[in-house]
Amino acid sequence: MPAATNLAFGRVLLKLSGEALLGEKPFGIDRNFTDYLATEIREVHELGVEVAIVIGGGNFFRGVSDTARGMDRVSADQMGMLATVINGLALQDALERAEVMTRVLSAIEIRQVAEPFIRRRAIRHLEKKRVVVFAAGTGNPYFSTDTAAALRAMECKAEIILKGTRVDGIYDSDPLKNPKAKKFDRLSYLEVLQRGLKVMDTTAISMCMDHQLPIIVYDLRRKGNLRRIVTGDKLGTLVKE
User: In the structure, what pLDDT confidence band is assigned to residue 176 with cuts at 50, 70 and 90?
Assistant: First the structure.
């Protein structure tokens, strides 16, 4: 394994939306894309970076989606949590086929398919150079997987949250719809909140601000970007005080 002395970060939390696993598909999981993700994660893992992952469930079900309208919010959110477990297992399968030891830890008890989330166990897995996938959000309704990412990052002492998206940073409007959208290279937490930028939800941003946990939003689909970030390249948008 290469020496890790040139790394910008030793332990990171990667936040992935469920929609990221869609790849080129309209619904479900694109196996080609999960294999691509596994390759990207393996590259940084081989450098010595400890990687934790929080994944959403929007490719199957989201508690605040149009599909859930009229449902009891708690039931809808619980369905969304189960969707994240499916995604976590899919990512674990792709990583282990790429020869990266991986553990899925679930915030809701589902022992036949995933370990229960125990903070010290999660940290121990990371120390043993296993990739850890946190599934089922926080285990509570009304909290998004963005909030789960901020919480888990602080619990496992990650140095930064890396949020992989379809665009190369944070813009003042949707660059996929507005070709004149302006990209920000750096923002403070308060600027994100005051501008109402859709980076992560306000609870997650506030938690990161309170605990001085930086966030980088970057283009997940550009090969090699994850490696470039952990080795110190300035990519995407940095959110920091």
Answer: confident
Judge whether 190 lies within some domain.
yes
pLDDT for the residue 5: 55
Please give the Cα distance from 196 to 230 (Å, whole number): 28
* CATH number of domain containing 138: 3.40.1160.10
**Is the C-alpha dihedral spanning 33, 93, 85, 224 positive or negative?**
negative
In the chain, how many domains are there? 1
The pTM is what?
0.94
- DSSP assignment letter at 11: E
Average pLDDT of the residues in 16-38 = 93
- Please list the alpha-helical segments (H only) found in the chain: 31-46, 73-97, 119-127, 145-155, 189-195, 202-210, 225-230
